[in-house]
Amino acid sequence: MTVTYTNRVADARLGTFSQLLLRWKGSIYKLLYCEFFIFITFYFSISLTYRLILNASQRLMFEKLALYCDKYAELIPVSFVLGFYVTLVVSRWWGQYESIPWPDRIMNLVSSNVDGQDEYGRLLRRTLMRYSNLCSVLILRSVSTAVYKRFPSTEHIVRAGLMTPEEHKKFESLNSPHNKFWIPCVWFSNLAVKARNEGRIRDSVLLQGILNELNTLRSQCGRLYGYDWISIPLVYTQVVTVAVYSFFLACLIGRQFLDPVKEYPGHELDLFVPVFTLLQFFFYAGWLKIHISTYCSRSHMAPTLPFLTPSLLLVGRGNVTEICFSILVMGH
């Protein structure tokens, strides 16, 4: 979950970053506490069994097994596999954020290049923006569960004012097994050409600029659709998951504190609590949970996308009608 915290560290006072470590919302503690307690429970259960239940011969067999697991568990390249995979997942997540179709640029072009202060001119600008916003909403509801809950069907889009009943009929009449988010782009292009022929757009250069920006928005929507459609190969996820879980399964036995009287290498002290093993679990399992929460969840952009939906409506509708052609008095 994406949590904004930059305002908390803006002044960089003493203890500011320590306060961030204690935050619960959006933290690694919230993601990892269940697995962490499960690991601790299994570890101390095995430790108490070794100390209190096993007899001498069984302890000897367990100690040999613990030394074996501790020696060969390090052969699993957990750091390399996790580092490579988390880098891939986070870069993919950031690429999705950069592909979010914001309406501001195309709104500026429509507002400044589509002339007419009469009712038809305002309707023309609003319709163009409505089509671009409709394209964005159609793709956002297909990649985010949060936006899908806001618009579970195209009828909800009609009720929100992004599509007229007549447009809805035409939209539904096109039978396609694929996402039809591109249809409003076709409507936008046809209406923009009509506005150019009517003289509402002064020349073809301005029309080309508007259509180029529409194509940019269409490309952003296409990238979002591609990110949702084409997943990271399953074998990558399987390798990382098996590597992490097998490593810590081996650690449950291999990192046990053995009887210091027997002078096994590395077991001179019996601390009972494996501090550095728990820290290692916190780091490695935390990396894996970052992958799960960032990539596997379809609602990982949920804090951003529901905010964007009303932004589409407000920017698209208001700016091309209310402040269009408004010029303030220039000051000295």
Structure description:
Belongs to the anion channel-forming bestrophin (TC 1.A.46) family. Calcium-sensitive chloride channel subfamily. Pfam families: Bestrophin. With 332 residues, this protein is an all-alpha fold. It is 68% helix and 0% strand. The protein has 14 helices and no strands. About 2% of the residues have low confidence.
Low-confidence stretches: 299-303
Q: Level of helix content? A: 55-70%
Shape: elongated
Total E-strand runs:
0
Helix/strand/pairing category: mainly alpha
* Amount of beta strand: under 5%
- The radius of gyration computed from the alpha-carbon positions, rounded to a whole number of angstroms, is 29 Å
Main pleated sheet: none
Kindly report how far apart the N and C termini lie: 47 Å
Q: H/E order of the elements?
A: HHHHHHHHHHHHHH
Average pLDDT: 85
How many separate domains make up the residues?
A: 2
Tally of alpha and pi helices: 14
TL;DR?
The protein is mostly helical and 332 residues long. It has 14 helices and no strands.
